[in-house]
Specification:
single chain, alpha/beta, Rossmann fold, five-stranded parallel sheet
């Protein structure tokens, strides 16, 4: 991966912030595209081997995590509990394969450990467990919890006069949960401008299209009505995502939500916009086809 250079982990592109001791990442678009392809291949391989998992919503959010971990977040794989790290919270916890792949690519644990997904005794369970896995900030399972958790973390940072930022990844189907909107009101009430929510807006959930299960539109105006600053982007455009995160840092006095328009199952032709692959693992033949498409 010649497009990325590293002084703290591999692959990564980090420059040491002498003032804070932070590792601030600075990856090119070409470098992040390479990372994104690797993440997709990891997701397919590990879910295929496990025979269980959620490929659709993991694949749809790949570019979001590529930009966050290789461009935006201050973090130290060598010190996962570094107090000044930015916090990433995976609220849509069934997309754990994506987070595990990203953490492995950053160097939080060896890449070959990805093959242990969902095995007994593995640190990589079907939903994230912060007591097991280095780099995981919240144990997940029930949807709708992550934004509330993120608010607590953001408030703690403010009370402790710490400069870290908090990023929470939500699924659009997850936004059916009433707790998401209660949290949305609270974040605006407390003017949490150190908090950014990202909605992986792929239009599908386990039961089908959101518009048919529980219509969320107009999603942007809902967030605005709850007091959030709204940014909308193509969730697979690395430059747009990078610009959105830069813009979010400039917003003062209110939380920011980035609505990332994505495709469920992105990158694998027979998984794209296919609700069957919300929670179904590809078989051996499908793994082979998918990996060829992701070369």
């Amino acid at each position: 991966m010649s497009a990325l250079k590293s002084d703290s982990f591999s692959p990564g592109a980090s420059a040491k912030n002498a003032k804070a001791g932070a590792f601030l990442l600075s990856a090119s678009v070409a470098g992040m595209e390479t990372v994104a392809r690797r993440l997709r291949r990891h997701i397919i391989t590990m879910i295929g081997k496990a025979g269980s998992g959620h490929p659709g919503g993991s694949l749809s959010a790949v570019e979001i995590l590529a930009v966050l971990y290789f461009k935006v977040l201050r973090h130290k794989p060598s010190d996962p509990c570094w107090p000044d790290r930015d916090r990433f919270i995976l609220s849509k916890g069934h997309a754990a394969p994506l987070l595990y792949a990203t953490l492995a690519e950053c160097g939080y644990f060896p890449r070959d450990e990805l093959s242990t997904l969902r095995q007994l005794g593995s640190r990589l369970q079907g939903h994230t467990d912060r007591t097991l896995t280095p780099g995981v900030e919240m144990s997940a399972g029930a949807l709708g919890q992550g934004l509330s958790f993120g608010i607590g973390v953001a408030l703690a940072g403010r009370l402790g006069s710490q400069g870290y930022r908090v990023y929470v990844l939500l699924g659009d189907g997850e936004c059916d949960e009433g707790q998401v909107w209660e949290a949305g009101m609270a974040a605006a009430h407390f003017k949490l401008d150190n908090l950014v929510a990202i909605v992986d807006n792929n239009g599908l959930q386990i039961d089908g299209w959101n518009r048919e299960v529980m219509n969320l539109e107009p999603l942007n105006r809902k967030w605005e009505a709850f007091g959030w600053y709204v940014i909308e982007v193509d969730g697979h455009d690395l430059a747009q995502l990078s610009g959105a995160f830069d813009r979010a840092k400039q917003v003062k006095g209110q939380p920011v939500v980035i609505i990332a328009h994505t495709v469920k199952g992105k990158g694998v032709s027979f998984m794209e916009n296919n609700p069957d692959f919300h929670g179904k693992a590809p078989d051996a033949g499908e793994v082979e086809i998918a990996l060829r498409e992701l070369e």
